[in-house]
Amino acid sequence: MLSRTADHLFWMSRYIERAENLARLLDVTYQMSLVPQSLDAINQSWAAIIALNSLEETYAAKYSEVTGENVLKFMVSDPDNFASIHSCLRMARENAHAVRGTLTTEMWETLNSTWLEAREKTFDQLYQAGIGDYFEWVKMRSSLSRGTTLGTLLQDEAYHFIRLGTLLERADNTARILDVKYHVLRPQGDEGATDFYEWGALLRSVSAFEVYRKVYRDVITPERVAELLIFNKDMPRSLQFCLNSVIKNLELIANSNSGETQRQAGMLHAQLRYGRIEDILEHGLHEWLSDFMDRIYLLGNGISKDFLVPMEEAA
Amino acid sequence: MNFYNEMYDANGGVRAHYKGYEDWLKATPPERIDRKRAEADLAFHRVGITFAVYGEEAGKERLIPFDVIPRVIPASEWKSLRSGLRQRVRALNMFLHDVYHDQEIIKAGKIPAEQILNNAQYRPEMKGVDLPGQIYAHIAGVDIVRAGAGEFYVLEDNLRVPSGVSYMLEDRKMMMRLFPELFAKHKVAPVQHYPDMLLEKLRAVAPKGVSNPTVVVLTPGAYNSAYFEHTFLAQQMGVELVEGRDLFVKDEVVYMQTTQGPKRVDVIYRRLDDDYMDPLAFRPDSTLGVPGILKAYQAGNVTLSNAIGTGVADDKSIYPYVPDMIRFYLGEEPTLNNVPTYMCRKPDDLKYVLDHLPELVVKEVHGAGGYGMLVGPASTKEQIEHFRQLLIAKPDGYIAQPTLALSNCPTFVEEGIAPRHLDLRPFVLSSGKCVDMVPGGLTRVALTKGSLVVNSSQGGGTKDTWVLED
Predict the structure, then answer these.
(1) Which ipTM did the prediction report?
(2) Rg (CA), chain A
């Protein structure tokens, strides 16, 4: 497969996944802002989203204060914000457009119509109609595109690059959500009802609320939430699940240059395969997650260098 | 002016080959057709069968209007068209080989040397280069119109990167989806094997010694007006769609960058003009091409389709000589007509043209896409005066032709069904062995009342083209 084609497929799937994860994060934050609490606390969680995406400067250039509506507007539909859902859907479509001949008709039609529909929506309409509906729509469109991929695409290299992009992006996002929320929700002794709602919301943001109940059959505690999102091998949005799939897909596309990248992925995978939540918490979850995200970033670079950028340029 | 109507004869009676369709049309409620038309629009839009329009907002894509009334051609007419097309394209390929080799046609005094050798499209780099099968134009899009009492005329030969074949195929797919019952009733010759035929032809012209060639389609990129077609053809043939930046040349061999390392490329169906192909040989500012590809090509290590330098044969200043080429190379009388053409570089012709501007169509010699032309009868005094000045200033830049009474076909437009002018672009494929084409081609229709310009850049639409089998 052409390196450029693989590159477009990889980024196409990353952008779809990113749009979905953003919708999940914004949705949970929005839902939480409806639970009675101090305005300070609410605004703090909105500010965390801006920080999570390292967008403080871009945001400050446009908006003077951090409010739910402003952050939503900025992160949902602002075309100038390259990290907004709107931009992600556009980039997903542009990448797909560049390789539309490699995609199946169903995949292309899904991505193209997602973009055409997204383009029609104005933020005010969405906000009036209930922004939650929009987040559901984004999640469904992402599911649809994963579904048409799974249901129609030949499981060859193209498929492996798409999976690689999806899972790498998802691992990064799950780690981010956990990091920012764990930071905000750091256990402070008063285990009131708010905590239950907040941790519950976090689980819901990664579709893991029912999973938690099934796995632990117990009350929700921060440690177990972290354990579930990091170590559960069967939950599609956990870090271990993502890395399992990353190393499998990497093996399937391996070439003579990719040994080092595979080694790095294997090391990261081994940590998740054999690690324990107690050790991580003792060491500091935030530090561990930061390190994890750094390594995911390096893994992405390694993949780019080994497969996506023409070899002569990379050499 | 009286126009030949594709569906009805001069007395208003329906032509035999349209009888079945007309019966169906009469019996079908207009609401149903309207619904189907809306369905087609939606589907084309969703699938993204669009083309980009230059000069409009960057990246803007527009739908080419699709008309649901087919253009029907009876078997007998198609047969004679086909043999005329074969003859014409064979002669054009022989002409191209000749002008880059022995130049017999110049020596024989049939075409003035400067007409060929000073033509901007003539590429001296191609002199003495031997091509597989001696084929230059592997794909030719020949524009044909029907005029007067129904005779066919060749309007121009597109031998560089003719486009539109994807619309031909998509239009057929759409018609079969919307109106399957029509196809059950009519024996419409199939066209869907075009990509197969194209792949076969491309493989047949691989460099010497290559038994299982790697074929690719080269596109200028996603913002090119015909990008949809490029992806469509690559996908239908199951070959890679590449951009210039995906290719590189090493030791006069072309490779593409793949995830498994460099892979050799043997045949390139390129949809990029000569000028942009190789910044080392042609335009140095081109970022779309491949540095060094001309050398690889001259060395016979890669086949370009169409060949570099085919433009010299489809130039409007060469067009008037095509019938002579057919006589010269094949020793046959041309079966397809040329439109009588005045070459403004000849003083007598220029005088005639200047005296008759309001009746003539004037075209820029290198123009394309319906830009830079004057349709005399449809122009204002100011426009005619403007062209008069252009002609006087640069006579060799223009040709002129009588305004043809292009045929009409019933077409759905805002006021209902009304006659609109159309043309036909069959896609003629050549390899060393044979000249071949699928029955029919792309029918383009001018949607504006009275307009004779069918180009999609000028708001033209398309119709499915039916060649009926006996």
Answers:
(1) 0.80
(2) 20
Evaluate if residue A133 carries a pLDDT over 60. Answer: yes
Angstrom CA distances, B412 to A179, A295, A310, stand at 61, 61, 50
Q: Please tell me what DSSP assigns to residue A234.
A: S
Produce one character per residue of B380-393: b if its CB has 16 or more CB atoms within 10 Å, e if not.
eeeeeeebeebbee
Mean predicted confidence (pLDDT) in A28-41: 82
- Smallest CA–CA distance, residue A3 to chain B, in Å, is 5
CB B432 within 8 A of CB B135: yes
Give residue-wise pLDDT tens across range A269-303. 999 999 999 999 998 999 999 999 999 999 999 99
List A residues 278-307 in contact with B (Cβ-Cβ < 8 A): 307
DSSP code for B372: S
Backbone φ/ψ region at B16: left (φ over 0), alpha (ψ -120 to 50), beta: alpha
Mean pLDDT value across residues A157-182:
92
Q: CA nearest A184: which of A315, A47, A280, A88? A: A47
Interfacial residues of B (vs A; Cβ cutoff 8 Å): 45-48, 221-222, 230-232, 234-235, 240-243, 245-246, 248, 256-262
Integer Cα distance of B92 and B277 in angstroms: 22
Model confidence at B250: pLDDT above 80: yes
For residue A158, the Cα-to-chain-centroid distance in whole angstroms is 21
Across chain A, mean pLDDT equals 90
Give the tokens for residue B456.
């999609």
Closest CA to B74 of B16, B144, B14, B123: B16
Smallest CA-to-CA distance from B77 within B458, B374, B468 is with B468
DSSP string, B62-117: EEPPEEEEEEEE-HHHHHHHHHHHHHHHHHHHHHHHHHTTT-HHHHTTSS-HHHHH
Q: From the CA of A237, how many Å to the nearest CA of chain B?
A: 28
Q: What is the pLDDT of residue B369?
A: 55
Q: Residue B248 — φ and ψ, nearest 5°? A: -150, 160
pLDDT at A5 over 90: yes
Q: Is residue B377 very low, low, confident or very high in pLDDT (cuts 50, 70, 90)?
A: confident
Bridge-based pairing of strands B240-242 and B215-218 is parallel
A102 in contact with chain B, both atoms CB, cutoff 8 A? yes
Helices vs. strands in chain B: H and E counts, helices first: 15, 23
Contact B361, B400 (CB under 8 A): yes
**Do residue B46 and residue A113 have CB atoms under 8 angstroms apart?**
yes
Contact B231 A100 (CB under 8 A): yes
Q: What is the three-class DSSP state of A267?
A: helix
Min Cα distance A311 → chain B (Å) is 7
pLDDT for residue A216 is more than 50: yes
Tokens of A153: 């695409």
pLDDT of residue B101: 98
